[in-house]
Predict the structure of MFS transporter.
Amino acid sequence: MKKIIEIFKNPVFVKLFFANFTSQMGSIIGITAFTFYLLDRFSEQPAYASIAEMMYSLPTLAVFFLVGVLADRMDRQKIAYHCDTISASLSIVLLGAIYIGWMPLIFAILFLRSAVSKFFFPAESGILQGVLSKDDYATSAGLNQMVSSLFMLFGGALGILAYRFTGVYGAIIIDSLSFVVSGLLMRACQIPEEVRLPNGNHKWKDLNIGFVFNDFKVGAGYILKNKLLRSLIVGFFLFGVVNGGFSVMPIFILKYKLAPQSYEEFSVILGVIFGSGVLIGSVISSIIIQKIKFYQAMIIGLLVTGSFVVLSGYASNITIFFVLIFISALTLPLVNIAIGGWMPSIVDKKYMGRVQGWISPLMMLSQTITLGFISASFQKVLSIEALYCIVGGALIIVAIYYMMVLPKLSKHKVEGVNQTSVAH
Protein backbone atom coordinates (compact mmCIF):
# COMPACT_ATOMS: atom_id res chain seq x y z
CA MET A 1 0.00 0.00 0.00
CA LYS A 2 2.89 2.35 0.81
CA LYS A 3 4.32 1.96 -2.69
CA ILE A 4 0.89 2.62 -4.25
CA ILE A 5 0.54 5.84 -2.24
CA GLU A 6 4.04 6.90 -3.27
CA ILE A 7 3.51 6.24 -6.98
CA PHE A 8 0.29 8.28 -6.96
CA LYS A 9 2.31 11.24 -5.70
CA ASN A 10 3.83 11.36 -9.18
CA PRO A 11 1.51 13.79 -11.08
CA VAL A 12 2.51 12.50 -14.51
CA PHE A 13 1.77 8.90 -13.54
CA VAL A 14 -1.64 9.90 -12.14
CA LYS A 15 -2.62 11.55 -15.44
CA LEU A 16 -1.29 8.63 -17.50
CA PHE A 17 -3.07 6.12 -15.27
CA PHE A 18 -6.46 7.80 -15.60
CA ALA A 19 -5.92 8.46 -19.31
CA ASN A 20 -5.41 4.73 -19.80
CA PHE A 21 -8.39 3.96 -17.52
CA THR A 22 -10.85 6.20 -19.37
CA SER A 23 -9.62 5.05 -22.77
CA GLN A 24 -10.08 1.37 -21.84
CA MET A 25 -13.48 2.00 -20.31
CA GLY A 26 -14.84 3.77 -23.35
CA SER A 27 -13.43 1.17 -25.75
CA ILE A 28 -14.98 -1.75 -23.87
CA ILE A 29 -18.37 -0.02 -23.66
CA GLY A 30 -18.28 0.83 -27.36
CA ILE A 31 -17.11 -2.60 -28.52
CA THR A 32 -19.61 -4.49 -26.36
CA ALA A 33 -22.53 -2.29 -27.33
CA PHE A 34 -21.69 -2.48 -31.03
CA THR A 35 -21.46 -6.30 -30.88
CA PHE A 36 -24.93 -6.50 -29.29
CA TYR A 37 -26.22 -4.06 -31.89
CA LEU A 38 -24.98 -6.30 -34.70
CA LEU A 39 -26.51 -9.39 -33.09
CA ASP A 40 -29.86 -7.60 -32.66
CA ARG A 41 -29.91 -5.76 -35.97
CA PHE A 42 -28.54 -8.61 -38.09
CA SER A 43 -29.67 -11.67 -36.15
CA GLU A 44 -29.79 -13.70 -39.37
CA GLN A 45 -26.21 -12.75 -40.24
CA PRO A 46 -24.05 -13.67 -37.19
CA ALA A 47 -20.94 -13.46 -39.37
CA TYR A 48 -21.08 -9.67 -38.99
CA ALA A 49 -20.13 -9.98 -35.31
CA SER A 50 -17.15 -12.17 -36.24
CA ILE A 51 -16.06 -9.74 -38.93
CA ALA A 52 -16.30 -6.85 -36.45
CA GLU A 53 -14.01 -8.79 -34.06
CA MET A 54 -11.54 -9.23 -36.91
CA MET A 55 -11.57 -5.48 -37.51
CA TYR A 56 -10.31 -5.03 -33.93
CA SER A 57 -7.48 -7.57 -34.25
CA LEU A 58 -6.28 -7.49 -37.88
CA PRO A 59 -4.83 -3.95 -37.73
CA THR A 60 -2.06 -5.31 -35.48
CA LEU A 61 -0.62 -7.11 -38.51
CA ALA A 62 -1.14 -4.07 -40.73
CA VAL A 63 0.77 -1.47 -38.67
CA PHE A 64 3.13 -3.47 -36.44
CA PHE A 65 6.25 -2.33 -38.35
CA LEU A 66 5.32 1.33 -37.79
CA VAL A 67 4.13 1.56 -34.18
CA GLY A 68 7.45 0.90 -32.47
CA VAL A 69 9.50 3.05 -34.83
CA LEU A 70 7.22 6.06 -34.35
CA ALA A 71 7.18 5.60 -30.56
CA ASP A 72 10.99 5.73 -30.52
CA ARG A 73 11.55 8.44 -33.14
CA MET A 74 8.66 10.88 -32.73
CA ASP A 75 7.22 12.72 -29.72
CA ARG A 76 5.66 10.01 -27.57
CA GLN A 77 3.29 12.39 -25.83
CA LYS A 78 1.97 13.75 -29.13
CA ILE A 79 1.52 10.23 -30.49
CA ALA A 80 -0.57 9.16 -27.49
CA TYR A 81 -2.56 12.41 -27.54
CA HIS A 82 -3.33 12.20 -31.26
CA CYS A 83 -4.29 8.52 -30.93
CA ASP A 84 -7.01 9.63 -28.53
CA THR A 85 -8.21 12.61 -30.57
CA ILE A 86 -8.29 10.68 -33.86
CA SER A 87 -10.09 7.75 -32.18
CA ALA A 88 -12.67 10.17 -30.74
CA SER A 89 -13.24 11.69 -34.20
CA LEU A 90 -13.56 8.27 -35.84
CA SER A 91 -16.14 7.26 -33.21
CA ILE A 92 -18.27 10.22 -34.29
CA VAL A 93 -17.81 9.24 -37.94
CA LEU A 94 -18.88 5.71 -36.96
CA LEU A 95 -22.21 7.12 -35.73
CA GLY A 96 -22.88 8.48 -39.20
CA ALA A 97 -21.90 5.19 -40.82
CA ILE A 98 -24.26 3.26 -38.53
CA TYR A 99 -27.05 5.71 -39.34
CA ILE A 100 -26.47 5.17 -43.07
CA GLY A 101 -26.27 1.42 -42.45
CA TRP A 102 -23.57 0.66 -45.03
CA MET A 103 -21.61 -2.24 -43.52
CA PRO A 104 -18.42 -1.94 -45.63
CA LEU A 105 -18.02 1.65 -44.42
CA ILE A 106 -18.69 0.63 -40.81
CA PHE A 107 -16.07 -2.13 -40.94
CA ALA A 108 -13.57 0.20 -42.63
CA ILE A 109 -13.97 2.76 -39.82
CA LEU A 110 -13.61 0.05 -37.16
CA PHE A 111 -10.43 -1.17 -38.85
CA LEU A 112 -9.00 2.35 -39.09
CA ARG A 113 -9.84 3.23 -35.50
CA SER A 114 -8.32 0.01 -34.23
CA ALA A 115 -5.17 0.65 -36.29
CA VAL A 116 -4.82 4.12 -34.76
CA SER A 117 -5.23 2.74 -31.23
CA LYS A 118 -2.29 0.35 -31.75
CA PHE A 119 0.10 3.32 -31.61
CA PHE A 120 -1.02 4.31 -28.10
CA PHE A 121 0.45 1.54 -25.95
CA PRO A 122 4.09 1.60 -27.16
CA ALA A 123 4.17 5.40 -26.75
CA GLU A 124 2.58 5.25 -23.29
CA SER A 125 4.91 2.43 -22.21
CA GLY A 126 7.91 4.50 -23.22
CA ILE A 127 6.63 7.50 -21.25
CA LEU A 128 5.94 5.41 -18.14
CA GLN A 129 9.40 3.91 -18.33
CA GLY A 130 10.89 7.40 -18.36
CA VAL A 131 8.82 9.05 -15.61
CA LEU A 132 8.92 6.20 -13.08
CA SER A 133 11.84 5.00 -11.01
CA LYS A 134 13.07 1.45 -11.42
CA ASP A 135 11.45 0.44 -8.11
CA ASP A 136 8.03 1.66 -9.30
CA TYR A 137 7.77 -0.51 -12.43
CA ALA A 138 6.26 -3.51 -10.61
CA THR A 139 3.78 -1.29 -8.72
CA SER A 140 2.68 0.33 -11.98
CA ALA A 141 2.28 -3.10 -13.63
CA GLY A 142 0.22 -4.30 -10.67
CA LEU A 143 -2.11 -1.30 -10.85
CA ASN A 144 -2.59 -1.75 -14.60
CA GLN A 145 -3.31 -5.45 -14.04
CA MET A 146 -5.98 -4.57 -11.48
CA VAL A 147 -7.59 -2.11 -13.89
CA SER A 148 -7.62 -4.75 -16.64
CA SER A 149 -9.18 -7.30 -14.30
CA LEU A 150 -11.87 -4.80 -13.25
CA PHE A 151 -12.81 -4.26 -16.88
CA MET A 152 -12.67 -8.02 -17.42
CA LEU A 153 -15.13 -8.37 -14.57
CA PHE A 154 -17.45 -5.41 -15.18
CA GLY A 155 -16.62 -4.14 -18.68
CA GLY A 156 -19.10 -6.35 -20.50
CA ALA A 157 -21.85 -5.45 -18.03
CA LEU A 158 -21.15 -1.73 -18.50
CA GLY A 159 -21.36 -2.15 -22.26
CA ILE A 160 -24.65 -4.04 -22.02
CA LEU A 161 -26.14 -1.42 -19.68
CA ALA A 162 -25.03 1.41 -21.95
CA TYR A 163 -26.57 -0.35 -24.93
CA ARG A 164 -29.85 -1.10 -23.16
CA PHE A 165 -30.31 2.41 -21.73
CA THR A 166 -28.76 4.64 -24.43
CA GLY A 167 -28.73 2.44 -27.52
CA VAL A 168 -25.77 1.96 -29.82
CA TYR A 169 -25.57 5.71 -30.53
CA GLY A 170 -25.37 6.63 -26.84
CA ALA A 171 -22.77 3.94 -26.16
CA ILE A 172 -20.54 5.16 -28.98
CA ILE A 173 -20.89 8.76 -27.77
CA ILE A 174 -19.67 7.56 -24.35
CA ASP A 175 -16.84 5.81 -26.19
CA SER A 176 -15.91 9.03 -28.00
CA LEU A 177 -16.06 11.16 -24.84
CA SER A 178 -13.77 8.73 -23.03
CA PHE A 179 -11.13 9.25 -25.72
CA VAL A 180 -11.55 13.03 -25.38
CA VAL A 181 -10.97 12.83 -21.60
CA SER A 182 -7.98 10.54 -22.11
CA GLY A 183 -6.50 12.93 -24.68
CA LEU A 184 -6.93 15.94 -22.39
CA LEU A 185 -5.21 14.11 -19.55
CA MET A 186 -2.39 13.09 -21.85
CA ARG A 187 -1.96 16.64 -23.11
CA ALA A 188 -1.88 18.00 -19.54
CA CYS A 189 1.17 15.90 -18.63
CA GLN A 190 4.42 17.77 -18.07
CA ILE A 191 6.89 15.29 -19.55
CA PRO A 192 10.64 15.98 -19.93
CA GLU A 193 11.91 16.19 -23.49
CA GLU A 194 14.36 13.31 -23.01
CA VAL A 195 11.40 11.06 -22.17
CA ARG A 196 9.22 12.29 -25.03
CA LEU A 197 12.07 12.20 -27.54
CA PRO A 198 14.59 9.59 -26.35
CA ASN A 199 16.34 9.47 -29.73
CA GLY A 200 16.25 13.19 -30.46
CA ASN A 201 13.86 15.21 -32.61
CA HIS A 202 12.83 13.80 -35.99
CA LYS A 203 10.59 15.23 -38.70
CA TRP A 204 7.94 13.30 -40.57
CA LYS A 205 9.93 13.75 -43.78
CA ASP A 206 12.77 11.78 -42.17
CA LEU A 207 10.58 8.71 -41.82
CA ASN A 208 10.68 7.35 -45.35
CA ILE A 209 10.09 3.68 -46.11
CA GLY A 210 13.79 2.82 -46.01
CA PHE A 211 14.27 4.54 -42.65
CA VAL A 212 11.23 2.85 -41.09
CA PHE A 213 12.21 -0.66 -42.19
CA ASN A 214 15.84 -0.14 -41.20
CA ASP A 215 14.74 1.04 -37.76
CA PHE A 216 12.41 -1.92 -37.48
CA LYS A 217 15.34 -4.19 -38.35
CA VAL A 218 17.48 -2.45 -35.72
CA GLY A 219 14.79 -3.26 -33.15
CA ALA A 220 14.95 -6.94 -34.16
CA GLY A 221 18.74 -6.86 -33.87
CA TYR A 222 18.51 -5.33 -30.40
CA ILE A 223 16.21 -8.14 -29.25
CA LEU A 224 18.40 -10.87 -30.76
CA LYS A 225 21.60 -9.53 -29.18
CA ASN A 226 19.97 -9.09 -25.76
CA LYS A 227 20.00 -12.63 -24.36
CA LEU A 228 17.61 -12.04 -21.47
CA LEU A 229 15.12 -10.08 -23.57
CA ARG A 230 15.34 -12.65 -26.35
CA SER A 231 14.62 -15.46 -23.91
CA LEU A 232 11.57 -13.65 -22.53
CA ILE A 233 10.15 -12.97 -25.99
CA VAL A 234 10.57 -16.61 -27.06
CA GLY A 235 7.98 -17.40 -24.38
CA PHE A 236 5.66 -14.73 -25.78
CA PHE A 237 5.19 -16.79 -28.94
CA LEU A 238 3.60 -19.53 -26.84
CA PHE A 239 1.55 -16.91 -24.99
CA GLY A 240 -0.09 -16.25 -28.36
CA VAL A 241 -1.03 -19.94 -28.50
CA VAL A 242 -2.61 -19.55 -25.05
CA ASN A 243 -4.54 -16.42 -26.09
CA GLY A 244 -5.85 -18.19 -29.18
CA GLY A 245 -6.98 -21.20 -27.16
CA PHE A 246 -8.56 -19.16 -24.37
CA SER A 247 -10.63 -17.16 -26.87
CA VAL A 248 -12.68 -20.26 -27.74
CA MET A 249 -12.00 -22.94 -25.06
CA PRO A 250 -14.45 -21.78 -22.38
CA ILE A 251 -17.44 -21.65 -24.69
CA PHE A 252 -16.43 -24.99 -26.28
CA ILE A 253 -16.23 -26.92 -23.00
CA LEU A 254 -19.53 -25.45 -21.82
CA LYS A 255 -21.36 -26.10 -25.09
CA TYR A 256 -19.95 -29.51 -25.95
CA LYS A 257 -19.31 -31.08 -22.54
CA LEU A 258 -20.53 -29.46 -19.32
CA ALA A 259 -23.68 -27.44 -20.10
CA PRO A 260 -24.96 -27.98 -23.67
CA GLN A 261 -28.44 -26.64 -22.89
CA SER A 262 -27.44 -23.55 -20.91
CA TYR A 263 -23.92 -22.71 -22.02
CA GLU A 264 -24.75 -19.06 -22.74
CA GLU A 265 -25.89 -18.36 -19.17
CA PHE A 266 -22.94 -20.25 -17.70
CA SER A 267 -20.50 -18.36 -19.95
CA VAL A 268 -21.58 -15.12 -18.24
CA ILE A 269 -21.00 -16.70 -14.81
CA LEU A 270 -17.63 -18.01 -15.99
CA GLY A 271 -16.61 -14.48 -16.99
CA VAL A 272 -17.44 -13.20 -13.51
CA ILE A 273 -15.54 -16.06 -11.85
CA PHE A 274 -12.47 -15.65 -14.03
CA GLY A 275 -12.49 -11.86 -13.62
CA SER A 276 -12.87 -12.20 -9.85
CA GLY A 277 -9.92 -14.59 -9.74
CA VAL A 278 -7.74 -12.20 -11.74
CA LEU A 279 -8.78 -9.23 -9.59
CA ILE A 280 -8.07 -10.99 -6.28
CA GLY A 281 -4.90 -12.44 -7.74
CA SER A 282 -3.77 -8.96 -8.81
CA VAL A 283 -3.95 -7.71 -5.22
CA ILE A 284 -2.14 -10.76 -3.82
CA SER A 285 0.45 -10.77 -6.61
CA SER A 286 1.26 -7.08 -6.08
CA ILE A 287 2.32 -7.99 -2.54
CA ILE A 288 4.19 -11.18 -3.46
CA ILE A 289 6.07 -9.51 -6.32
CA GLN A 290 7.81 -7.20 -3.84
CA LYS A 291 9.29 -10.19 -1.98
CA ILE A 292 10.55 -12.47 -4.77
CA LYS A 293 12.40 -12.04 -8.04
CA PHE A 294 10.49 -11.40 -11.24
CA TYR A 295 11.56 -14.64 -12.91
CA GLN A 296 10.50 -16.64 -9.84
CA ALA A 297 7.04 -15.05 -9.95
CA MET A 298 6.71 -15.83 -13.66
CA ILE A 299 7.75 -19.46 -13.24
CA ILE A 300 5.40 -20.05 -10.28
CA GLY A 301 2.50 -18.32 -12.02
CA LEU A 302 2.99 -20.23 -15.28
CA LEU A 303 3.34 -23.62 -13.59
CA VAL A 304 0.28 -23.22 -11.37
CA THR A 305 -1.92 -21.65 -14.04
CA GLY A 306 -0.87 -24.18 -16.69
CA SER A 307 -1.47 -27.14 -14.38
CA PHE A 308 -4.96 -26.02 -13.41
CA VAL A 309 -5.86 -25.24 -17.02
CA VAL A 310 -4.99 -28.85 -17.92
CA LEU A 311 -7.01 -30.16 -14.96
CA SER A 312 -10.02 -27.99 -15.86
CA GLY A 313 -10.24 -29.73 -19.22
CA TYR A 314 -11.02 -32.98 -17.39
CA ALA A 315 -13.63 -31.47 -15.02
CA SER A 316 -16.65 -33.76 -14.76
CA ASN A 317 -19.15 -31.09 -13.72
CA ILE A 318 -19.62 -27.33 -13.87
CA THR A 319 -18.80 -26.71 -10.19
CA ILE A 320 -15.40 -28.41 -10.37
CA PHE A 321 -14.67 -26.57 -13.64
CA PHE A 322 -15.43 -23.17 -12.09
CA VAL A 323 -13.22 -23.92 -9.06
CA LEU A 324 -10.29 -24.97 -11.25
CA ILE A 325 -10.67 -21.95 -13.54
CA PHE A 326 -10.82 -19.62 -10.54
CA ILE A 327 -7.53 -21.00 -9.21
CA SER A 328 -5.87 -20.70 -12.62
CA ALA A 329 -7.04 -17.05 -12.83
CA LEU A 330 -5.79 -16.39 -9.30
CA THR A 331 -2.14 -17.03 -10.22
CA LEU A 332 -2.17 -15.53 -13.72
CA PRO A 333 -1.49 -11.95 -12.51
CA LEU A 334 1.86 -13.11 -11.10
CA VAL A 335 3.00 -13.60 -14.69
CA ASN A 336 1.55 -10.37 -16.07
CA ILE A 337 2.82 -8.16 -13.25
CA ALA A 338 6.28 -9.74 -13.37
CA ILE A 339 6.53 -9.13 -17.12
CA GLY A 340 5.21 -5.57 -16.78
CA GLY A 341 7.64 -4.82 -13.98
CA TRP A 342 10.69 -6.48 -15.53
CA MET A 343 10.53 -5.38 -19.16
CA PRO A 344 11.17 -1.65 -18.49
CA SER A 345 14.19 -2.63 -16.38
CA ILE A 346 15.93 -4.60 -19.11
CA VAL A 347 15.06 -2.56 -22.21
CA ASP A 348 16.97 0.59 -23.08
CA LYS A 349 14.62 3.59 -23.11
CA LYS A 350 15.64 4.34 -26.70
CA TYR A 351 14.35 0.94 -27.89
CA MET A 352 11.18 0.40 -25.84
CA GLY A 353 8.83 1.31 -28.70
CA ARG A 354 10.51 -1.02 -31.18
CA VAL A 355 10.59 -3.88 -28.68
CA GLN A 356 6.86 -3.46 -27.99
CA GLY A 357 6.33 -3.22 -31.74
CA TRP A 358 7.73 -6.74 -32.15
CA ILE A 359 5.84 -8.42 -29.32
CA SER A 360 2.27 -7.81 -30.54
CA PRO A 361 2.67 -9.23 -34.08
CA LEU A 362 4.61 -12.22 -32.74
CA MET A 363 1.77 -13.10 -30.36
CA MET A 364 -0.85 -12.33 -32.99
CA LEU A 365 0.87 -14.68 -35.46
CA SER A 366 0.87 -17.63 -33.05
CA GLN A 367 -2.68 -16.77 -31.95
CA THR A 368 -3.90 -16.82 -35.56
CA ILE A 369 -2.11 -20.12 -36.28
CA THR A 370 -3.66 -21.64 -33.16
CA LEU A 371 -7.17 -20.52 -34.06
CA GLY A 372 -6.70 -21.90 -37.58
CA PHE A 373 -5.54 -25.23 -36.17
CA ILE A 374 -8.49 -25.40 -33.77
CA SER A 375 -10.95 -24.53 -36.55
CA ALA A 376 -9.60 -27.33 -38.73
CA SER A 377 -9.17 -30.05 -36.11
CA PHE A 378 -11.59 -29.55 -33.20
CA GLN A 379 -14.02 -32.48 -32.85
CA LYS A 380 -12.30 -34.17 -35.82
CA VAL A 381 -8.96 -35.13 -34.31
CA LEU A 382 -8.84 -32.74 -31.33
CA SER A 383 -11.00 -33.34 -28.26
CA ILE A 384 -11.87 -30.67 -25.68
CA GLU A 385 -9.54 -32.37 -23.19
CA ALA A 386 -6.70 -32.31 -25.72
CA LEU A 387 -7.32 -28.62 -26.36
CA TYR A 388 -6.98 -27.80 -22.68
CA CYS A 389 -3.83 -29.95 -22.51
CA ILE A 390 -2.28 -28.03 -25.41
CA VAL A 391 -2.99 -24.62 -23.89
CA GLY A 392 -2.09 -25.57 -20.32
CA GLY A 393 0.92 -27.49 -21.63
CA ALA A 394 2.12 -24.39 -23.50
CA LEU A 395 2.18 -22.46 -20.20
CA ILE A 396 4.06 -25.30 -18.47
CA ILE A 397 6.59 -25.51 -21.33
CA VAL A 398 7.28 -21.77 -21.02
CA ALA A 399 7.69 -22.17 -17.25
CA ILE A 400 10.22 -24.98 -17.73
CA TYR A 401 12.08 -22.99 -20.39
CA TYR A 402 12.20 -19.92 -18.16
CA MET A 403 13.33 -22.11 -15.25
CA MET A 404 16.27 -23.29 -17.34
CA VAL A 405 17.44 -19.95 -18.75
CA LEU A 406 16.24 -16.98 -16.68
CA PRO A 407 18.00 -17.59 -13.32
CA LYS A 408 21.38 -17.76 -15.08
CA LEU A 409 20.78 -14.78 -17.37
CA SER A 410 19.33 -12.60 -14.61
CA LYS A 411 22.65 -12.65 -12.76
CA HIS A 412 24.46 -10.85 -15.56
CA LYS A 413 24.09 -7.43 -17.07
CA VAL A 414 21.90 -7.33 -20.14
CA GLU A 415 23.90 -6.74 -23.28
CA GLY A 416 23.50 -3.19 -24.53
CA VAL A 417 21.71 -1.96 -21.40
CA ASN A 418 23.38 0.01 -18.64
CA GLN A 419 21.10 -1.49 -15.99
CA THR A 420 21.20 -4.76 -14.14
CA SER A 421 18.72 -7.38 -15.24
CA VAL A 422 17.08 -7.98 -11.90
CA ALA A 423 15.04 -5.00 -10.79
CA HIS A 424 15.06 -5.96 -7.15
